[in-house]
Amino acid sequence: MIDYFLHHLVILPILLPIATAALLLFYDERRRKLKLWISLSSIGLLVLVSIGLIGRAIDVSPHAEVYNLGNWQAPFGMVLVLDRLSAAMVFLASILAVASLVFSAAHWHKAGPHFHSLMQFMIAGVNGAFLTGDLFNLFVFFEVMLTASYGLALHGSGLARVRAGMHYVVINLIASSFFLIGAALIYGVCGTLNMADLALKLQTLKSADRIIFESGAAILGIAFLVKAGMWPLNFWLTPTYSSAAAPVGATFAILSKVGIYVVLRLTLLVFGTNGGTLTGFGNDILFYGGLATLIFGFIGVLASQALGRLASYSVLVSSGTLLAAIGTGNASLTAGALFYIVSSTLSLAAFFLLVELVERSQDTAANVLAVTMEVYGEDEEDEEDEVGTYIPATLAILGACFGITAILIIGMPPFSGFVAKFMMITGVFNPDGLNGDGYQPSARDWTFVALLIFSGFAALIAMTRTGIRTFWASIEGKVPRVQVIEFAPVAGLLGLCLLLTIAAGPVAGYMGKAAEELHHPQNYIDSVLPQQTVAVRPIPSKEITAGLIDKVDVERGGK
């Protein structure tokens, strides 16, 4: 009985937020408090469900938990697939949703209509993209996620927000068209969109159809890489993320990871060890595109003067690091990359929330003047040093949070950002572990490690410069008013990063097992398709017609 109940947990991360979003539509905006409590209760329950899914994924590992919607067996029916990676990503999305909703309770959920419904629909789409086992449903959940994110990107109005939001809508609609075209080409030659079935069909694909399949996969990849933010497809990301409302920007930190997740899943499932002649298809594009994104990201980080743009370019640095790591095809590096996904997403979400709180104390004109004086080498007049200057408690708390966030984004010890980068560097130089025979790193390996380290150095320069301007300045300016309900989610996300550091061993072990499952996709395939399909010779239409005629003649003769 308990096992039966646990089996049905897989559908709840999709069903629960959709039901909640539909329920909230029945209440008008005068019932905002009630809508807030309903939304928070739903997301809180979702966190508990996601924890249960992690336990379920550990129990069934190295296989996957398969949920057949409508009790139709794959590949003909729609399936949800739960493994270690998808369970961890659902948990991560749920945590970000809780933090964003709590932060929005102070102000932002009143800034526009249907905020909570849009948030719930977006989380449903994100969770569905993590759990689905076929490309058709992936497109459906992508559209649910994107449609809700369109409304959230425009939430709160404002000229900059509307302009960036409209660009975001148009670019993602084009990406959705690429998704449909690519999926149609793949279905035309394979006759299936089930991911596990595609991995099997690819082994017997005719050479004449392989070109069409590669074209469909490439077009499909463009749609995913737009969402992942790979250069040069990422020019929409910085304006959209930096101009979005603070809780929206924090939730958007997971959206680029959806594109990363799909690229990682399909690359290792379809073009992994069972891919035959297409094994490693697209890896070079992912690697060098990831390095280009990494370079573009840390140049943007160095050039950013506004906190919002600094946070947005940090998202691109994260995406570039992950895409390059996927492109190496290194299982040990993948484990570090999965750890990095969790750490970077939590720290970036905290940064987006912190940006608004910090900017309340800043004078935009003063910032422009400071930058101008730096450029022309002008210094302020010397003033008498004040001994024992009092620092307001609010600025002290915000400064401490900013410092911790900076350490996490830079990747300095002792926090989880350093652990993640150390795992990736170790995976590059020692892919076979402690029992390896002495791997000789290639030029690609050295390039990846060098850019990974330099991106942290660029973040160190940018965050130090921003911290000095913001907190190491005269206190004659305005002290921001920060409510406890706004500070709590920032502290909670940073606390999770601290917990991630303390529990680095178990979490790294979990991610190592997840990476091993990804690089050995046969268990995934066997879980989704337990009965291997027997290859049957296609019967020509002439033989079918002749057989039917013979059958009719026999029946007539019998009468």
Automatic annotation (TrEMBL):
Cross-referenced InterPro entries: CPA3_Na-H_Antiporter_D, ND/Mrp_TM
Q: Has UniProt tagged this entry with the keyword Protein biosynthesis?
A: no
Give the NADH:quinone oxidoreductase/Mrp antiporter transmembrane domain ranges. 133-430
User: Where does this protein reside within or beyond the cell?
Assistant: Cell membrane; Membrane
GO terms for cellular component:
plasma membrane
State the annotated membrane topology for this chain. Answer: Multi-pass membrane protein
The answer to whether UniProt assigns keyword Transmembrane to this entry is yes
Instruction: Identify the keywords attached in UniProt to this record, alphabetized.
Output: Cell membrane, Membrane, Transmembrane, Transmembrane helix
Its family remark reads: Belongs to the CPA3 antiporters (TC 2.A.63) subunit D family.
Supply the name of the protein.
Answer: Multisubunit potassium/proton antiporter, PhaD subunit
The record lists the organism as Bartonella apihabitans
